[in-house]
Amino acid sequence: MRAVSNTSPLSNLASINRLPLLQAQFPEIFIPQAVEQELAVHPDPAARARIQAALQEEWIKPAVADDSHLLRLLLQQLHRGEAEAIALAAQIKADMVVIDEQEGRELASQAALSVVGVLGILLRAKRTGQLPAIKPEIDALRMKARFYVAAPLEAKILAAAGE
User: Fold this and answer.
1) What domain count does the chain have?
2) What is the pLDDT of residue 1?
3) Distance in angstroms (rounded) separating the CA atoms of residues 22 and 44
4) Closest Cα partner for 11 from 129, 136, 155, 117?
5) 129-158 b/e (C-beta count within 10 Å ≥ 16 → b)
6) What is the pLDDT of residue 37?
7) Pairwise CA distance, residues 77 & 36, whole Å
8) CATH number of the domain within which 100 lies
9) Parent domain of 80
10) What whole-number distance in Å separates Cα of residue 19 and Cα of residue 44?
11) Is 150 part of any domain?
């Protein structure tokens, strides 16, 4: 399954040492140049090292998003990394876009792309037995990555996970 990721899912999962969950679900993840540049300056040295290891192992693969009409439209509404990720996903006909930001998710869906975020990755991992529970992972995301989860969304995810 081919996926394209924005910065935040990779950054957040690297911060809690859970990149292997993403690799198990998507053995090949492409990132556009803007995302690669953002990840290269991750403020947490351990997370940055995990990301660099994934790049060296080549399951995270840098790619160039063409300067397309779609990219130019997306840049009017989104941060460069999000815009390039969505444009690259459309360009390579990715099976999934890994993105957390609501506006980016909505625009990716409008571009007929399938979307998953960090919480969806965790839920999928729980359902396949890779994680015993999601709640500790959400707590770790809050503490280590300063990840915001609205209470209703957290309740929905935990209910879906049977927690």
Assistant:
1) 1
2) 85
3) 19
4) 117
5) eebeebeebbebbeebbebebeeeeeeebb
6) 96
7) 20
8) 3.40.50.1010
9) 2-119
10) 14
11) no
Q: How far apart are CA 114 and CA 134, in angstroms?
A: 22
- Quote the pLDDT of residue 153: 93
pLDDT in the model for residue 140: 97
Within 13 Å and on the Cβ side, how many CA atoms surround 58?
A: 0
Q: From residue 31, how far is each of 16, 93, 138 by CA, in Å? A: 20, 14, 24
pLDDT averaged per 10 residues, the chain (length 163): 95 97 95 96 95 96 94 94 96 96 93 95 96 97 93 95 95
Query: Would 143 be classed as within a structural domain?
Result: no
Which amino acid is located at 17 in the chain? N
Residue 89 lies in a domain: yes
Looking at the whole model, is its pTM more than 0.90?
yes
| Residue 138 domain-assigned (yes or no) | no
